[in-house]
Structures are given as C-alpha cells and as structure tokens.
Amino acid sequence: MPEKPAKTETPRASPLTGLSGKVLLLSMVFVMLGEVLIFLPSIANFRIQWFKTRIAQAEIAALAAEAAPDQILNDDLRSEILMGAGVAAVSLKKGEKRQLVLRDSNLAMIAETFDLRPGMYYNTIFQALAAMVRTEDRIVGVIDIPPNMSGDLIEIALHEQPLAKDMRSYGLRILLLSIVLSLIVAALIFAALSRVLVRPMQRLSANMMAFGDDPENAARVIKPSGRRDELGAAEHELHDMQTQLQAMLQQKSRLAALGLAVSKVSHDLRNMLTSAQLISDRLGEVQDPQVQRFAPKLITSLDRAIGFLNQTLKFGQAQEPPPQRETFRLHAVTADVLDAFALQCGEAITLENGVQSAVSVDADREQLNRILTNLVRNAVQALEAGGGSGSISISAERQGSVTMVHVADTGPGIPAAIRDKVFAAFQSAARSGGTGLGLAISAELAEAHGGSLQVARTGPTGTTFTLSIPDQPTRIESRRAKPASG
Fold first, then answer.
1. How far is CA 58 from the centre of its chain?
2. What are the pLDDT digits (tens) for 98-143?
3. Is 137 helix (H, G, I), strand (E, B) or coil?
4. How far is CA 432 from CA 101, 252, 480, in A?
5. Strand, helix or coil at 220?
6. Integer Cα distance of 53 and 50 in angstroms
7. Please, are residues 347 and 285 in contact by the beta-carbon 8 Å criterion?
8. pLDDT higher than threshold 90 for residue 399
9. Can you give the residue range of the structural domain that contains 438?
C-alpha cells in the first residue's frame, strides 16, 4: 500500500483576520462611507442656513435702523446693532433704489460674494469645504431675498471666521455621531451576517477539516441543515460528495485487500498450474487423436495462465505491462479462442469464426487473446443464462488504419440495471458467482492499445461488442520490412 502523504497544517484564522473580523471591518467602513456621502451635502446645507440666519437678523437690524428718528444712529448703537446681527454691513434694494442701511466704520474690502437666491446654488459643497478648512479671516458678501420682504434684495457683509468655527464644530459632532452609528450598525450587521452566513460557513469549514482527518468515519459526513439558500445547496453537495468519497474509499480498501489476497492465491495457484503443466506434457505423448488435438491447446492455456500469475506476483497487483505489439493475422487468434470454448459449449452453442484470413491487427498477441477470451466467456454465460442455446460469432474488418473486431451473441441482452456500468470493475456481474472483472479488464487492455471496447448493440435478440485497435505509428520502411505473420 502506498504511504499516505503528509497532511499540511491548515492555517487557523485569528478573530481579526478571520471571516468574522473582516465582516465587522467592512461593515464599519461601508457605514462610514455612507456617513461621508451624507456629510458633504449636510455641511453645505449648514453653511447656507447659517448665511440665511444672518440675513434674517440683518433685515431686522435694518428695519430697526430705519425706524430710528431721522434714521440717525450714533456709533455705539450702530455697533451694538451690527454685533447683535453678526454682520458688518447691510444694504437694501427697493425697486431701483439701493440704500446702505448699516455699515461698520472699520469695514474692509469684500473678498468674495455668494448669491443665495433660488437657482443660484452651485458649487456649494466645494465652497463649504473651502470655508471649513480656511484659517484666515476675511470679509465675504451674501446676497439674498429678504425673508420678511422688506425690500427686493438684501446684501450683507460679514466675517467668515465665525462660519468656519461653527462648521468645524458641526463637522466634529457629525464625525462623533457617525462613529457611534457605524459601531451600532456594524454590530447589528455583524450579528446578522454572523448568524446567517459566518457560522454556517464555519460549520462547513470545520466539517471539511474533520472529514479530512478521518474520511472513512461515517459520523464525519455533514448533515444538511435544511436551508433553502446557496449555503443549503452547498451543504447538500458536500454531503453527496463525502458520501461518494466514502464509498470510493471503501471500495479501494476492498480492492487493496483483494489484491493482497490475489497475490497470495496466485503464488499457490502458480505451483498447482506448474504441476498441471507437467502432467499435460505427458498427455502430449498419448496417441489418441482427440488428445493430440486438444493437448497443445491445453499446454498453451496453462503457459498463458502461469505467465499471467508470474506478472501478478511480479507487480504485486494485477497491473498490466505495456503491450508488446506486433502485426499478425487475426484469424489464428480468434480460432484459438473459439477452440478453447468448444468443449464447454458442446452442440447447444454454435461458435463461428467469421474473420477473414487476410485481416491483420497490430496488437499484443497475448493481451488480444485475453480480451477476446473474456468477451466470448461473457457471451457463453449470457447464452447459458438465457436457456443454454444460441450462437456466438467473431468477425472483423479493417477501417483505414484501425482493426474493428465484433463479438456477437444471440443471448437475452445486457440487463438494463447494469448497462451504464458494464465496464466498471465489480459492478457488471449479472450472474451469480461472477466478479464483474472480465469486461473491465478487457476495456483496460483495449485502452492500453489506444483503442476502445464498446457495446455496439444489446437487446432481446442478442448483444454485440466492438473492439477497435488502431495501428501504432510506424515508418513506412519498417512497415514494408516487417510483413504480417501468421
């Protein structure tokens, strides 16, 4: 028996690098990504609403300034009103008239103006991000429609640094909220995926490792959980695969035990056949015509059996040697095969050699004899099972560089239960006491020649096996120099 290869150690995943850790990490990343996509428009909207709040406060301040007697305000009152509104200047436009209502005495130049009127929102996200990260203070202008309709247009000037400060505070709150939400959502997703996917996959993985440690233990075969999704289908497929593998391993074990037994039996059987061979040599000296006819065939059969047993003992198992091919006439081989069954068949079964003397074959003579012997024996057994009478014929023809041999019988046909596995070892025994090895060995020998053995037809009127053996590639010169032998 070959040594079992050393099993590689299966890497064990840590909680962080395992499937569970990856699911948790990906859940957090995707939730944070979703928060970022939500944060960008929300920070832009925060900036716009911050400006609109200043617009509303500036409009109230402008109305208060217009309500003053003669619209005259001292410097202190003007500063208090502007500080309360959070702006540096306010102007109103009514019709064609534009009036600067309030203005800080220290007002600098406006660096940039933003229009908040409907339809003027564009680049608001980029403007919000730029204002959020800007460190220097500057004066910006904002134009909008007065919320209280105190005029047609209102324009204010204000410092941008308070806006940046409030936006950074808002962004920090959003960041903290996003982290908390990502942890909560990731935990929920992790719990759901762990129950639905991770644990079943871990069960599959653990079962495969346990089955690999002891594949012949029936308790290691996974039991499907009854799920109706892809994992359930995987469990069913794994169960079927493990069951089939166990059956194959059991069959291999039986074959290994059988091989050991065959080696022991072959050793003793070879000694018995050697004694029978010595006796058959003495039979050749008997002058009876029937003995003189069959004694050489008996000696040949004994020599072939002893040679095969020697090969079995030599290789330790029924391993076939490569074909020793030669080109010879097929008729003589088929005649030897049919003559070997003549006494067994008697008059109830007709044996017909329909191979023309001109048909040649490029094959191993002994292996071809074994193939045809197995096919004829199979046909004889089929006729005996169907009533004990009928006919068996062997015919052949050349198709290009391929020799086609047909072995036909008039038996009851191959049973439907074994038609799909007729060439499988230990599977095609249709009669009691059969091993199911003959056809399997014949198919293996045919494939060793580069050919094939197939069931051409089968049914109530009989069965025909077709053996195809292609010629081995040879040079034309050597082909001409080596004519077919008889």
1. 70
2. 888 888 878 888 889 998 887 766 678 888 888 888 888 899 999 9
3. coil
4. 117, 23, 50
5. helix
6. 5
7. no
8. yes
9. 322-476
Lowest mean pLDDT among 187-201, 359-373, 421-435: 421-435
Q: What is the pLDDT of residue 3?
A: 47
**At residue 286, does pLDDT exceed 90?**
no
Q: CA 457 to CA 459: how far, in whole Å?
A: 7
Q: What is the mean pLDDT of residues 414-438?
A: 67
Question: What 3-state DSSP class applies to 99?
Answer: strand
**Structural domain ending residue among the three candidates 184, 205, 238:** 184
DSSP annotation of 219 reads G
| Last residue in a domain, options 184, 216, 248 | 184
Which CATH number covers residue 466? Answer: 3.30.565.10
The whole-angstrom separation of Cα 281 and Cα 300 is: 11
State residue 206's pLDDT score.
84
Query: Is 344 inside a domain boundary?
Result: yes
Overall number of domains in the chain: 2
Tokens of 485: 């032998």
Question: Per-residue DSSP letters for 163-194?
Answer: HHHHHHHHHHHHHHHHHHHHHHHHHHHHHHHI
The HSE-up count of residue 1 (CA atoms within 13 Å, CB side) is: 11
In a domain, 242, yes or no: no
CA neighbor of 325 nearest in space, from 365, 370, 357: 365
Neighbours of 96 (CB within 10 A): 6
Residues recorded for the chain? 486
* pLDDT > 60? residue 315: no
Half-sphere exposure of 79 (CA within 13 A, CB side): 6
> pLDDT for 137-176, tens place per residue?
899 999 999 888 777 899 999 999 999 999 999 988 888 8
